[in-house]
């Protein structure tokens, strides 16, 4: 069948097929294959795809194939296969039908039509898909910066974890009872920290400034105990220049340094 | 437990910061699963409504919810971009369409429909984009890979399911071929797996 | 030429979509340079103002403007991450426990109790976290720093005061060092997380 194709005399380029030689390559590259080229020819000539006149279609198709070959364009094998198929269909249509032919015999064009329709359907589907807004091309997926400067992923600690840690310590160090801390002691120690922190800022505080009577008597007592403990541990100095003069509290190292 | 306004604020921030669409189930974790799926969906709908007048919209996709710019505003945003993102070639888009509408398909199936050889590069392009993947192999000689579209494909095209693909253009149900009866042809057209027909494969032989 | 509302909508979308901070000069391209820098800055300020009640904010950085989640929002984002949260080593936890229960203490005190040298890194970790700080110095040779826990430590652990730390009598009771009041024990038993992975901290311990 290939021989037949090559054996055909070169047909002159009809006017409606004329493409400027410069544009030819671009034009031919625009086709995605033989089905695409056939569809173009059918649509261009307003042919009925369901009742294709095989003779003119085959002629036009072969003309294109010939142009491609004469320009030494790399012609995909599929184009030649299609040419053979078209000529086969054409010749089968030309054969006289036996008078008592089985009515189930298929039109030789049926398979071609089916493939053309299916290809056209997918071609249009591709265009429709291409029209959908595409992420990266038509729309941008939002993903704003996540600010982490303050809270980089830090471990969570629960109060109970501290007790567990302490328990582990006890276990290892076989700590004796003097390490047991009561709520009262803890309260004193908390106030020791508070007083030291206050002294960090002000260096010297008047004794009375350390007390907050509005928080009640228990807090006053605990604050006083904290002061005594701090003094005992030489962490603060409590001074009074004379009787009834203001009492000053300062950090233990404030003067020695 | 958050009040609805706080919950929406948190939802909004999580969705704006997310790299991928977030499902309702994932979003529930934001609230330690204390907010039910239905309440969450309502909040998301309210959020979508609140964003409706803006140039950014909250959309519901195959794998969840995502904020994205509206396509109408792309011309403005493109002014900031030094180069435009390329469009896919017709060959790529046709291959994608066949995989999307006819999945699962082999490369041979695609070649039957397109009538040309499908290059490995085309398949690679779609795989690299995360739009298609191999979902199995057909038990025929060579065990060719069967391709299907991914959830990412739906997400990237703004779809929730394949149902939302643009409908295929109606192909003539009955071929008015004469003189041969059209019955067999119309049957083939109606059958979704028409490409399995033996002569379809034979027709694209590449050995000229 | 856009009206201010449209311009803001476009600005907002462009900034939300941008991967990098955008300078005013770059943003001018959105409007084909038809909006001046001053007008643009005003619009950006208005936009920042509009976003101020949200969990995402518009900030102005050296290299330009960008949207970012507020740092306070980080805990929610973390809930979306599936990886296990990091834990402090046993060394860090014990040091913290000693400072919490025995404050104010020096590093020497901590070493006495733990029986091992306390690395500067451990103290640094807790200082960086804002949970401990130096409240004074003990008047002994070398004048070692005295550490105490901070307000922030209490806040982060959800405590109003050190009083609310788990009482150590329980511990004593567990170790049968001394009988504890029955009431407190039953309290501990009622707390659901009391026996929650007691050695979890130790398991990841890398003693300093």
Explain this structure.
The complex is a heterotrimer, with 1 copy of chain A (about 260 residues) and 2 copies of chain B (about 210 residues). Chain A is mainly alpha-helical. In chain A, about 50% of the residues lie in helices and about 5% in strands. Chain A is built from 9 helices and 4 strands. In chain A, strands 2-4-3 form a 3-stranded antiparallel β-sheet, covered by helices on one side. In chain A, a hairpin with a 6-residue loop joins β3 (about 235-240) and β4 (about 245-250). Chain B folds into 2 domains: about 5-70, Winged helix-like DNA-binding domain superfamily/Winged helix DNA-binding domain (Arc Repressor Mutant, subunit A, Orthogonal Bundle); about 90-205, Winged helix-like DNA-binding domain superfamily/Winged helix DNA-binding domain (Arc Repressor Mutant, subunit A, Orthogonal Bundle). Helices cover about 40% and strands about 10% of the residues of chain B. Chain B is built from 10 helices and 4 strands. Chain B has helices at about 5-15, 25-30, 35-50, 75-80, 90-100, 105-115, 120-130, 150-155, 185-190, 200, and strands spanning about 55-60, 65-70, 130-135, 145-150. Chains in contact: A-B, A-C, B-C. At the A-C interface, β1, α7 and α8 of A face β2, α4, α5, β3 and β4 of C.
């Amino acid at each position: 069948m290939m021989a037949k194709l090559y054996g055909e005399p070169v047909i002159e380029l009809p006017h409606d097929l004329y493409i400027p030689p410069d544009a030819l390559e671009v034009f031919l590259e625009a086709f995605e294959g033989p089905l695409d080229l056939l569809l173009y020819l059918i649509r261009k000539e307003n042919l009925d795809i369901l009742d294709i006149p095989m003779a003119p279609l085959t002629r036009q198709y072969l003309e294109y194939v010939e142009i491609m070959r004469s320009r030494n364009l790399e012609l995909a094998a599929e184009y030649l296969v299609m040419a053979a198929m078209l000529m086969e269909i054409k010749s089968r249509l030309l054969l006289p039908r036996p008078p008592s032919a089985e009515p189930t015999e298929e039109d030789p064009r049926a398979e071609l039509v089916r493939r053309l329709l299916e290809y056209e359907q997918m071609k249009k589907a591709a265009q429709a898909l291409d029209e959908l807004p595409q992420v990266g091309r038509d729309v941008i997926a939002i993903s704003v910066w996540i600010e982490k400067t303050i809270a980089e992923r830090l471990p969570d600690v629960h109060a109970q974890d501290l007790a567990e840690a302490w328990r582990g310590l006890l276990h290892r160090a076989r700590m004796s009872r003097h390490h047991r801390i009561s709520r009262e002691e803890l309260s004193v120690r908390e106030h020791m920290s508070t007083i030291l922190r206050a002294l960090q800022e002000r260096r010297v505080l008047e004794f009375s400034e350390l007390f907050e009577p509005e928080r009640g008597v228990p807090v006053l007592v605990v604050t006083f105990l904290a002061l005594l403990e701090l003094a005992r541990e030489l962490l603060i100095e409590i001074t009074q220049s004379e009787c009834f003069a203001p009492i000053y509290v300062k950090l233990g190292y404030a003067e020695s340094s | 437990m958050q009040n609805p306004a706080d919950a929406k604020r948190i939802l909004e921030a999580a969705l704006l910061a997310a790299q991928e669409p977030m499902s309702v189930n994932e979003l529930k974790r934001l609230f330690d699963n204390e907010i039910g799926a239905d309440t969450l969906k309502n909040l998301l709908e309210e959020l979508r409504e609140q964003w409706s007048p803006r140039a950014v919209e909250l959309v519901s996709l195959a794998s969840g919810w995502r904020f994205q710019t509206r396509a109408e505003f792309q011309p403005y945003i493109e002014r900031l971009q030094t180069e435009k993102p390329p469009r896919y070639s017709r060959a790529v888009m046709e291959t994608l369409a066949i995989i999307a509408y006819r999945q699962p398909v082999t490369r041979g199936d695609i070649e039957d429909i397109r009538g040309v050889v499908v290059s490995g590069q085309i398949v690679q392009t779609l795989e690299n984009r995360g739009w298609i993947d191999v979902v199995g192999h057909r038990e025929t000689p060579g065990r060719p890979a069967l391709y299907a579209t991914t959830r990412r494909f739906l997400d990237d095209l703004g779809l929730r399911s394949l149902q939302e693909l643009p409908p295929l253009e109606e192909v003539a149900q009955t071929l008015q071929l004469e003189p041969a009866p059209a019955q067999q042809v119309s049957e083939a057209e109606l059958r979704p797996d028409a490409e399995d027909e033996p002569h379809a494969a034979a027709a694209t032989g590449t050995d000229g």
